[in-house]
Every structure is written in C-alpha cells, then in structure tokens.
Amino acid sequence: MPTVKEILDSMDYGPAPESSAEVMGWLGARGAFGHYIDGGFTTPADTFATENPATGATLAQISQGSAEDVARAVDAARKAQPKWAKLSGHQRAKYLYALARSLQKRARFLAVLETLDNGKPIRESRDVDIPLAIRHFYHHAGWAEMLADEFPGLAPHGVCGQIIPWNFPLLMLAWKIAPALAAGNTVVLKPAEQTPLTALAFAEICAEIGLPKGVVNIVTGDGRTGAALTAAPVDKIAFTGSTEIGREIRRATAGSGKALTLELGGKSPFVVFADADLDAAVEGVVDAIWFNQGQVCCAGSRILVAEAVANTFTERLQTRLSKLRVGDPLDKCTDMGPIVSATQRQRVAALVSAGEAAGATLVQCEGQLPAAGHFFAPGLLIGADPANPASTEEIFGPVATLTTFRTPEEAVQLANNTRYGLAASIWSENITLALDIASQVKAGVIWMNGTNLFDAGAGFGGMRESGFGREGGREGMLAYLRGPSPKPRPEAQASFDAAPHPGAPGKGDPAIDRTPKLYIGGKQARPDSGQSYRVTAKGTEIGLAPLGSRKDIRNAVEAAHKASGWGKTTGHNRAQVLYYLAENLSARQREFESRLREMGANPAEAEATIARAFYYAAWADKFDGAVKSTTGNMVTLAINEPFGVMGVVCPDDAPLLGFASLVLPAIAMGNRVVAVPSASMPLAATDLYQVFDTSDLPGGVVNIVTGPKDELAKTLAQHDDVAAVWYCGEAEGRTMAEAESAGNLKATWTMSNRDWTDAQGRDFLTRATQVKTIWVPYGA
Amino acid sequence: MSPSDFARNPGTAFDPDWFEGHAVNTPAAERRAAQLPARRSLKKTYQAAWLVNAIRCMDLTTLAGDDTEARVKRLCAKAKNPLADHILTGLGLERVTTGAVCVYPTMVRAAVRALDGSGIPVASVATGFPAGLTPMNLRLAEILYAVEEGAAEIDIVITRAHVLGGNWSALYDEIAAMREACGDAHLKAILATGDLQTLSNVYKASMVAMQAGADFIKTSTGKEGVNATLPVSLTMVRALRDYGARTGAKIGFKPAGGLKTAKDALNWQILMNEELGRDWLRPDLFRIGASSLLGDIERQLEHHVTGRYASSSRHALA
After folding, report:
1. Average model confidence (pLDDT) for chain A?
2. Nearest CA to A302 among A431, A426, A174?
3. For residue B5, what pLDDT is reported?
4. Residue B92 with chain A: CB contacts under 8 Å
5. Helical H runs in A459-599?
6. What is the H or E stretch that residue A543 is in?
7. What is the pLDDT of residue A512?
8. Would you call the peptide bond into A370 cis, given omega within 30 degrees of 0 as the criterion?
9. A693: helix, coil or strand?
10. Is residue B229 within 8 Å of B271, Cβ to Cβ?
11. pTM listed for this prediction
C-alpha cells in the first residue's frame, strides 16, 4: 500500500473491498445445491455451475430441474395451498413480516451473495436490490393483513408458477413471492440459471422462519425447467424476462385457463427538454443505463434530447461517462461491474457494433477493463437514428443511443416509435409540458425528472410488447387474485350461407329493402367480400347480414385509430354520450324487442341494455386512479388509461345484451372498439347503427364487422395495431385468440358464454384499462 | 503556501444570460448529493491521507464575540501544528498546516503576528459580517482595514436582499466594488445560502459573484440557520464549473459551517473530485471553513496510527 505522502500526491481513492469471506464459507459448506421442495432440499442432481461473472470462477453447483422435479414441487404447492389460503390474513402477515425481518438481518450477506453471482456493484445490491426486496415483503405483509377487507369476494389463484430473470435476482423473487403469498397462493419459483444463489439462500430463510412446507418451492434450472413449469398444472404463470420467451409462454399457456402476467423487455425513451436541469438529466442517464450494467428492462436506453441543448448535454454526458469506475463489483467505489455472462456480453457487443455499422458514433468510458470477467465499457451511441438497429433492439447492456428532437410533438413521436412500452423518463422543469408528454407516451411507468424509481406501493409493468399485468401496490395484488367465475353456457353455432335463396314471389307493392351493412368509422360500409349471408330464425330467413372479412377488420381498425379523440375527451363527455345512447335506445325499445323476438332472443335484453348503458355512463367519470404512498417528496400517480383500440368478439348468444355488456365498459373507459357481434343473430347489433348515429357517438369509436366469428377474431388477435382483445366463445376459439395475440403480446380476456343479465361491474373496467404509474418528485 | 498557483479570476461584465432561466431541480440535486458519498469509499491509509488533505484545505476559524488576542494566538498555534507529533510521525509526514486561519478584522494583526514565518495566510471576514447590513462605505472601509492589518484573504458577505429581490445587477456592483477594495487580497464571497433558500437562487448568486470577480465562492457564515449542505455545494460547484467553461478561470469553493466530522470532510472532497477534478482538492481551490472539524479529524488519524480510539483530551485545543 502506498504511503500517506504518496497518496497526498495522487489523491487516489484506493481499494475499498467488501469482504466475501462469510459468503464463500457458506457456499463451501453447502457444496452443491438441490431444489427446495416441500420444505426441504433435494439431493443435488444433474448439476451445472454458477459462476462469478467478475472472475469466471465457479461459485457453486446447481441442479438442473427436470419435469419430475417441477411436478413434485407443484404437487407440494398444491397440497399446501388450501391450508395456506385458509390462514387468517393476520397469520399470513406474520409469516411475511418474519421473511422481511429475516432478510433485513441477512442484508449484508445477501448483498454480497447477489454481487458475487450477478456481478452488480456491491453499492447497488446493498443500497437498491436488498432494501427494495425487504420493503416488498413488509408492504405485502400489510396486504395479507388487509386482504379480506380490501379485496372482498376475491380468491387466490391457487398455485403460481413464477419465472424470474438474472438482472435483479432477489428483488424479482420478492416481487413475485410476496404478493402471491399475501393473497393466499403457494408458489413454485424458478430463478435464472445464471443467478440462482440468493433464491436458494431465501429458501433457507423460509425454512428458518418456519414457513409451512410447500408454500414456497424453488426449482433451479435453465429454460427447459421454465418450460416444464409453464406446462405444469399451475393456476397462474408470472414471468419476467425477455419478450421472446414471453411470447413463447403466451402461446404455451393459450387456452389453458392459467392466469398470466408478463413483464418483458423495453427500449425506454429518456426525453430531455431544453428547459430541463441538464446536470440532473446527466445523472439521470447514469441511473438509467449505467445502473446494473444497463441490464434493466426499464432502462432509459433511448436518449432523446432537444436540439437546442443537444451539444451541451452530450458534452456533459461524456464528461460524466469518463468518471465512471468499471471493475471489481465488490469494491465500494465501483460504478459498474461485469455483464452477467459471456453470452450476454457477446450479444451486447454485437448489437453495439451493429449500431456503429449503421452510422452511430460509439463513445465509451476509457480506462483499462479487468482482464478476467465479462466486462464491457459503458458508452453512448451518438447519432443513432430511429432506423438504426441499436435504436430498436433491446441491447440490455450499458450503452444508450442518443438522438435529437425539435418539438414536443416530435419527442412524443420518437418516444412512441417502439414496439415496447415499459417505462419513460421525462426531463423538464415545466410541469405543464412534462405532464402533457406523460399523458401521451405509451408506457406503464413514467418518471419525471428521475429514473428507475421503484417502490412496493406503486404498480410496475408494461404496455405493448413489454407485457401486461402490474407488480406492486393494489394493482399488483389484483394480479394474484381472481373473482368468482360465472357459470358457462354453451354457445350457438352460426352458418354462413351467401348463396341466393329464392322464396315465394312477392305480392303487391314490395317493401323498401333494408340492407344492413358494416359499421366502420361512423359510416355504413359494404363488406369487401361483396357478399351477405343468410340470417335465419327457426329455419326461416329473416334477413341478410354482410359477410365481413380480413380487409373489413383492417379498415375498422384504421377507423378506430382515427377516433383517438375519444380517449382524451372527459369522462363526463363519454358519460353524456352513453346516457344519450340509452335515451335513444329507450325511444326505440319496442323495435329492438321485436327484433330480438324475431331472432329468437329474449326481448328483455333491450331494457337490460338500456340499464347497462346507464351503468357505464355512471362509471365513465368515476373509475378513478390513485395517489400512491411511496417514497418521500414524491407524488406517485396511478392512472387508469384505456388500451386504445380493442377487439371485442361478442357471444353468439344474447345478441344485444352480450354485445353491450362488453362494448360499453370498453368505450366508457375511452377505448375504441372493433366489435364482432353475434354471428347467428347479428341484426340487433346492426340495428344499433342509427342509435349510435343519433347519440353523438363519434365515428370510429364503435366499429362493427359481422361475419364468421373465429375468422374475424383471428385477424383481430393477430393485428399488431390492436392493443387488447376480449373474446367470448368456446374453448377452441379462446385458445386461438390467446395464442394469436402473442404476436404483439396484446392483453387478452377470454371467457365462456354466460348469463349476461348480471355481467357488469368493476372487473370489466379493470380489464378495459391499464395502469400508468407516473412519478413526480418535488422540492423547492 | 501561496494563496494560489492559479491565475486570479478577473471577472467579467455583468451578464444575466449566464444564469437567468437556469434550472436546478432540487430532488435531483439531493439525490446526487446522497449518492456521492455512497458511490465512493475511502479506507485505511487512503482515508488517512484524504483526512490530512482536509487539514491542508482547512480555514481554521474563530468568529465569536468573545474572541481575544490570546484566543487567536492559541488558534494559530494549532494551525501551525494541527496534529500531535506522534500522529504526524505515525503518518510518515514531516509538516502539515491548515490552509489558513480565519478571524474577525480586529483579530487579523494578532493572527498575522502569531503566524509569522509559517506561510499560513490570514483570512478576515469583513463587510459587516455576518448580516452585511451596514452602510456600503463602512463595509468597504472594513475591507481596507483588514487588508491593511495584513489579511491575505477577505471573506465578504453579500446583501441577501439583492438575491431575494432578484436585483442581480446591484449584487454584481456590490461585489465588484468589494473586489476592488481587496486589491491583492483574494476575495471569498459568502452567499449565506441558508438565507437564499432555493438552489436556483444559489446558482444565480454564485454566477453573479464570479462575474464580479470573486476568487472563491463560499456557502455560509456559520451563523445562518442552515449552513453548508451537499446539495447547495453541488449547485455552487456546478455554477463554478459553468463559469470556468465560459471564461477559463478556475474559481475556488469553500463550504463553511456544518462540516463537523471526519466523514463530512471526506464527503465534501469526494464531491469536489467527482464534480470538478483533482485541482479542486488543493487549498488553492478548495477550503473548508471549520472550527470543530479538526478535532474529529485528529482523533480519527490517531486511531489510524495507534489502532486505539482516541480521546480529545490528549490533543491540543485549537
């Protein structure tokens, strides 16, 4: 070690290593790890190594979970679940509280273990990962206590299969296990094969606090183990990881009836306006992309900066970049450790090279990287155009793209020019501007003048291909609870006969022909097929309905997108339209009753539909968001936002009330809808066109395409510009709708036909919206 | 030690464009200030060296109503020998002194006498310290008096009303006049940031003081309700950086009041090093105004040398 005199010349920081002796001792004593199933560890088998990414040294041998291991774990969880759910909320709260307390008592041990296994700097595991994990268990001890009061009528799913990534191993475990347990579920959790160690240490803590056996089961292994868990007889799958795997899971679980939440990739914009505190924004970039080696799903990886300040901002950012210290993650002065694995490092390097090849300039932190380990110098890809692959692909490494914008409108366009929608960071001292941008950016989490802010009390989760479902807070609890399932009713089958069927020649003066058409963009449109199909009742033709096809769905979706004003108008205005609709429907109640009667449906549907319109008119301005209690000097808003354009595939049964029960809550929340009405009894829906026209419903808010249900539903489910699909029908169609929705990972709600008289309530509104969480720090 | 190896700040014409509309986001500044000490850690010999450096950068201060010449003499003795001999030897050092001694104007002569031959400059507060609300001619006369008495550095206070009222040109004129009165003595502008309250005010006042020719900008008199804090210091050093970027001038920074522990001394040095660089770890460009801090540093250094926790009763009083 140099002398004081020498240091007084160099003013170096010197080494400040955190000791890993205790953790290494623990690893040495354990040797190889089995799975934690039914309250005990299995004999290690089929083992693989988990390494320290900073050195490449093997830390421990881990068991590769087989389908049998998963089955045993699911059995154990299944056996434990009823008793766990039957405990009082207070009793479950005591266990969660004990978990929080025990994590706190092992805080340093867990921080060091996390850093060894993952490579993240000890400063981060110590100050971010572990404290947030502990907070999550405390917070959910509270939800367990209050469950019966705050979520009346809801029940746990049962057994939850949970698959978590390697970037925040213990924190993601906490996000998954805490709400599941609070709600009365039991779990089988698979940690990532790169970073299983803190989950195994957590298993020991579960045993230590006497958590009933089978409530938490940990099965280690790679993607094959994950696939086995996805396929296992669990009631819910919760996954955090890549969009690619998320898609596979969506397809694999389609039609299984398993509840699903997905928290996937991102390419989150980081928008710096000219009036921002530029130094604050520079530090924001450090906290965004140079945090956890950039291996953060919500990392602000696309920096968009106003042209007016682009030069100053970029210069300061480069100066700051040069101050980063890359090296031993156990050193307390280290800002960045290694990438988690050699494979990931190669992937990052390849994407960065592709970015350079496409014309961006790479600026990297200078200085020697350690020879061993998977280190990658943090950097920026300056001048990365939107078309640059580095601007569209998730790099998942410490390199952000940087490009400029001219106006707020262009900033929003660029921010939304992505398939993802996880998070966004907005920098401006003008709250009027910042809130306007926040309202327009498609992202589940928005940070103003901040980034990567998290708290157990606030929802976290994405829009678009970043997945669906929220973790944290009340909305996170809802993802681990389910309402009572209505009793299923069989669906009618429609046939599509487009050939002429001459009847008896007409007598006398012919009645004026009334031809129902499609309803697209507020206008009646002939089907692209140029065909209509026979609508019969009791074997008799009662009319013709247009035979809609793919292209009509395409046109309807386009029209729905054009009606974007509907989502921005006030709840009061939407309520007015819905009341007006009820009024006009009421004026023509008789006519609808006779139409329903003619089609063989229940005429009482007409009156029930009027009531339903009143019901959702009432809700239109009352489905409030919330202000969350999170961190100090922070306003954290949870806003219920409409999806945008939704596909709604209605039951064949209940041609008017079934349609209204699904379409009305969707539009009450500000969505625009492309609806496929009852195929065998479409005329109640087509009769609505004139009601819509006279009720001030803006064109494009409701679009109706009649025709072959599953064919149209498939086009909707596959449509990349449709954000959510509701499908009512038989199992085969439900499976199809869920599987085909995997393309853009749209949120789906599939259901059996049911008694529609009581089909209304808060759940419909929750399903019609997604929570956007907005963080606004304040301080004079 | 000479007051500075760097060229003095000549000042510039008053130009509000340099600071009007400059945004300081307070929560972000607080977050950065909280992160700085968490991101860097100093252990063992490194910590000892950085604590010695804090002594080198210290304006050892007495600014009390009951100051006497004898009291000032005692302070100066401590400034010349801030560490007990066995600590100094244990650290492998021959000589360490504080950066300066800071006193009231009527105590300057006593201090100069006591420090004769040590090379330690005497700094004097002036201009109606601490409130600065005496008539301008008297404030300028006070500077001339202190310089005449032998002060090499003058710590002036500003009229807070000029900041709170947004009267930036009046602030500029005031400080420029004081700078002129200082002559060869270096001017340290005390902004009394606890009175200015907002970080935006702190940034603007810093920039005006530098435009008016301040050699150092200093946070506090030690008499405000809130003295030096890390977020305020962060804001001031960023102003100083921005001024340097425009003019090439290197301005010094002096946090004062509120730095009481060895840990504080490390935190502020980390701030300087991370935000500005190594030059700002030298007494030419960085001073810590403190009275009690030295005692804690000496205890920590003795612990480093002996491995035993120290008692202040064994160290010479300042």
Report:
1. 97
2. A426
3. 74
4. 3-5
5. 473-478, 550-562, 565-568, 571-587, 589-599
6. strand A540-546
7. 81
8. no
9. helix
10. no
11. 0.96
Kindly calculate the radius of gyration of chain B based on its CA atoms and give it in whole angstroms: 19
Judge contact between A766 and A469, C-beta under 8 A: no
Could you state, in chain order, the average pLDDT of each consecutive group of 10 residues for chain B (318 residues)? Answer: 74 98 96 96 98 98 97 98 97 98 98 98 98 98 98 98 98 98 98 97 98 98 96 98 97 96 98 97 97 96 96 90
Q: Which fold has domain A518-776?
A: Aldehyde Dehydrogenase; Chain A, domain 1 (3.40.605)
**In a 3-state reduction of DSSP, which class is residue B21?**
coil
Q: Contact A7/B24, CB-based, under 8 Å?
A: no
What percent of chain A is helix, strand and coil (3-state, nearest 5)?
A: 40, 20, 35
Would A32-264 and A268-465 be classified into the same CATH topology? no
Provide the terminal-to-terminal Cα distance of chain A, rounded to the nearest Å.
Answer: 45
Q: What are the DSSP calls for A570-585, one per residue?
A: -HHHHHHHHHHHHHHH
| Distance, CA of A633 to CA of A571 (rounded, Å) | 30
pLDDT tens for residues A696-705?
Answer: 999 999 999 9
Question: How many CB atoms are located within 10 Å of the residue A49 CB?
Answer: 12
Q: Contact at 8 Å (CB) between A87 and A145?
A: no
Q: Which residues of B does the annotation mark as catalytic?
A: 155, 218, 254
Distance CA B145, CA B135 (A): 15
Q: What residue spans define the domains of chain A?
A: 32-264, 268-465, 518-776
Residues of B with CB under 8 A from a CB of A: 21, 23-32, 35, 38-46, 48-50, 52-53, 56, 91-93, 197-198, 238, 273-274, 278, 281
Neighbours of A166 (CB within 10 A): 22
Which residue from B23, B30, B31 is facing A429, i.e. has the nearest CB?
Answer: B23
**A43 vs A35, A62, A92, A201, CA distance in Å?**
8, 11, 30, 16
Q: Which domains does chain B have, with CATH numbers?
A: 24-314 (3.20.20.70)
Tokens of A520: 């697209």
Q: Which of A3, A10, A11, A311 to mutate to test the interface with B (most CBs of B within 10 A)?
A: A11
Query: Residue B162: which residues within 8 A CB-CB, separation 6 or more?
Result: B168, B170, B171, B174
Please check whether residue A202 is in contact with residue A218, taking contact to mean a CB–CB distance below 8 angstroms.
Answer: yes
- Residue A210: how many CB atoms within 10 A of its CB? 10
CA pair distance A459, A263, nearest whole angstrom: 12
Q: Which residues of B34-46 are buried (b: 16+ CB within 10 A; e: fewer)?
A: ebbbebbbbeebb
B130, burial (CB in 10 Å: exposed 0-12, middle 13-18, buried 19+): middle
E strands, chain B, are 58-61, 100-103, 122-126, 153-157, 186-190, 216-218, 252-254, 288-290
- Given pLDDT bands bounded at 50, 70 and 90, which one contains residue A504? low
Annotated catalytic residue within A18, A263, A394, A641? A263
Contact B32 A123 (CB under 8 A): no
DSSP annotation of A388: S
Chain A partners of B39 at a C-beta cutoff of 8 Å? 123, 333, 335
Protein fold of A268-465: Aldehyde Dehydrogenase; Chain A, domain 2 (3.40.309)
Number of residues assigned to chain A: 780
The owner of tokens 């068991």 is: A63
At residue A506, does pLDDT exceed 80?
no
DSSP of A641-674: EE-SEEEEE--SSSTTHHHHHHHHHHHHTT-EEE
Element (H, E) at A20: none
CATH of A32-264, one of 3.20.20.140, 3.40.605.10, 3.40.50.300, 3.40.190.10: 3.40.605.10
User: Cα–Cα distance between A463 and A469 in angstroms, integer?
Assistant: 9
Return the pLDDT at B2. 46
